Amino acid sequence: MWRPGFDFLERRNARLVGAHRALCVYSFVHRGTPEKPGLVLGLDRGGNCRGIAYRVASPLRAKTIEYLRGREQVTRVYREAWRRVWIDDDPQQSVHALCYVVDRGHRQYAGQLSLADQLHYARQGHGRSGPCRDYVLAAVKELQTLGIKDTELQVLAERLRGAHESSSG
Questions:
Q1: DSSP assignment of 86-137, as one string?
Q2: How far apart are CA 28 and CA 59, in angstroms?
Q3: Of the candidates 45, 37, 113, 120, which has an alpha carbon nearest to the alpha carbon of residue 75?
Q4: Staple partner for 26: which of 66, 100, 108, 145, CB 3.0–4.6 Å?
């Protein structure tokens, strides 16, 4: 959400029905390694997810999808799916959007972890894209900027900030 990595024409708050955001994916590349996994967010089945829908120019569509596949499908933990999403500021408007939904049968699927387990993986994970801790804090900051409340992620972020501040002070 905070670092799309591609050019877009429009960015709109939107809602996906039938999936929810969760720290349910062990990260072996971007925010961890197979030996010391981190965690990343995934769209898992059930519920609703508020987030962002991006519109890209038609000539850039193939290039954008290629980029997203390269970034999101490194280990094929996600299934690429076209889903209908509803635009927040116009409840009558919906668009088809490319989504990456977690594959529950994949070995990196973490499922629903306890707060203690999430803290463990968020603290230990460090991969190609940096520390898992930074990823969680950036996600929470972006959600707050968008006015999206995710209590579980906020509690995790508070614990991560508290542990870091007490160990660096």
A1: EETT-TT-EEEEEEEEE-TTSTTB--S--HHHHHHHHHH-EETTEEHHHHHH
A2: 33
A3: 37
A4: 108
CB 67 within 8 A of CB 6: yes
Residue 50 in domain: yes
Biggest CA-to-CA distance, the chain: 51
State the Cα–Cα distance between residues 160 and 169, nearest whole angstrom. Answer: 14
CA of residue 50 relative to chain centroid, distance: 11
Residue 98 lies in a domain: yes
User: Are the CB atoms for 2 and 139 separated by under 8 Å?
Assistant: yes
Number of structural domains found in the chain: 1
CATH of residue 67's domain is 3.10.490
Of 43-47, 70-74, 99-103, the poorest mean pLDDT is in: 70-74
Q: What does the pLDDT look like over 77-90, one tens digit per residue?
A: 999 999 999 999 88
Is residue 37 assigned to a domain?
A: yes
Range of the domain at 129: 10-163
What is this structure's pTM? Answer: 0.88
